[in-house]
Specification:
Shape: globular
Order of helices and strands: HHHHHHHHHHHHHHH
Helix content: 55-70%
Distance between the termini: 34 Å
Strand content: under 5%
Structural class: mainly alpha
Number of helices: 15
Largest sheet: none
């Protein structure tokens, strides 16, 4: 970004009124925000849509992935002090900064001020993020998730907030996964975006008065959200091993094995080892995954449980060299 001393215009804030905590994630098909529906969730959807979904002149650039061109236009506007006084333009500008690897901290406070004024439910924010993803506005989606996670964390630090921020981290994972599938720049993600998710995870794990068992189980899910997007092999291995060891030390193998996600991160660690040619380590963690899937009590249904068990058994055979190394592991989509 240039050396201009111009600053983002500060939007009005209102943080004295407590927002509603809503831990339920909006469904993908929930695209309505009609004004006549006056439930709190629908009302905040409508407010968010008016603010963040109206088209900006750079929207075409975003839809076509022409981030450098959009950045040039918006940066020039900022330097000239023009058309940067609405939240949509600021969001677009922040997305451009993020997508081109620039520091985007300057846009976070103005956008957080907008969120504080609207006081949306978390469900309506997740609905907005899904709308942005459908419009291929990936970086705008990431920015809204990050800002809203900080907003809810600052407002309340309870069990409910843990679940809300967990949903925002999962949403960021979904966006990053889509970007990976589009062959976007993973080095840039690793340097500029993944640290934000790591930071959110650490914030959650530092919350006080959270039951250690709950804390431990949720740690596995948060680890999974990060490791599936982590391009650095060493960092991915350390992240999963630290979580596996934490779960073993805190609740023990028997309790950890009741939770499917423990087996999933073990399986993904084994997959990483197998790709590195470390067959013994891979077999060890595939066997841990199999043991977990056989004992887990939180599968949605028996069909899914049997699929995971069969996949783990096949993966063990691949680690032993008895099957070709194709389609190894699971849980990464």
């Amino acid at each position: 970004m240039g050396d201009s001393d111009d600053t983002m215009p500060q939007l009005s804030t209102s943080t004295t009124e407590q927002h509603e905590i809503d831990e339920h994630v909006a469904s993908d098909s929930d695209d309505s925000y009609e004004e006549e529906n006056h439930t709190e969730n629908q009302a905040s959807k409508f407010d968010l849509a008016k603010i963040f979904l109206k088209q900006d002149s750079t929207s075409t650039y975003f839809a076509e992935g022409r981030f450098d061109e959009a950045f040039g236009v918006l940066d020039q506007r900022k330097r000239m002090g023009r058309e940067m006084r609405n939240a949509r333009s600021i969001l677009n500008y922040g997305a451009c900064l993020m997508s081109t690897g620039h520091d985007y901290n300057a846009v976070k406070e103005p956008l957080k001020s907008v969120i504080a004024t609207v006081k949306p439910t978390s469900k309506s924010v997740l609905w907005l993020v899904k709308k942005l993803r459908k419009q291929n506005e990936w970086f705008s989606a990431l920015l809204i998730d990050e800002i809203c996670a900080d907003y809810y964390f600052d407002a309340d630090r309870s069990y409910e907030t843990f679940g809300i921020i967990e949903n925002f981290i999962a949403s960021m994972r979904q966006t990053l996964t889509a970007l990976v599938e589009r062959d976007e720049n993973m080095e840039m993600f690793a340097q500029h975006i993944l640290p934000k998710i790591y930071n959110l995870k650490q914030k959650l794990l530092q919350l006080q008065n959270i039951d250690p068992y709950y804390h431990c189980v949720k740690s596995a899910y948060l680890t999974h959200c990060i490791e599936v997007c982590e391009p650095n092999t060493g960092a991915r291995i350390k992240l999963i091993l630290d979580t596996v060891n934490y779960m073993q030390e805190t609740i023990g193998d028997e309790e950890a094995n009741k939770h499917q996600m423990y087996g999933t991160i073990c399986s993904n660690l084994a997959t990483t080892y197998l790709k590195m040619g470390l067959r013994n380590d891979a077999q060890n963690f595939f066997e841990k995954a199999l043991e977990c899937f056989q004992s887990a009590t939180d599968f949605q249904d028996e069909t899914k449980k049997m699929k995971y068990i069969n996949d783990a058994m096949m993966s063990i055979r691949r680690a032993q060299g008895l099957e070709p190394e194709v389609g190894i592991g699971f849980g990464r989509n």
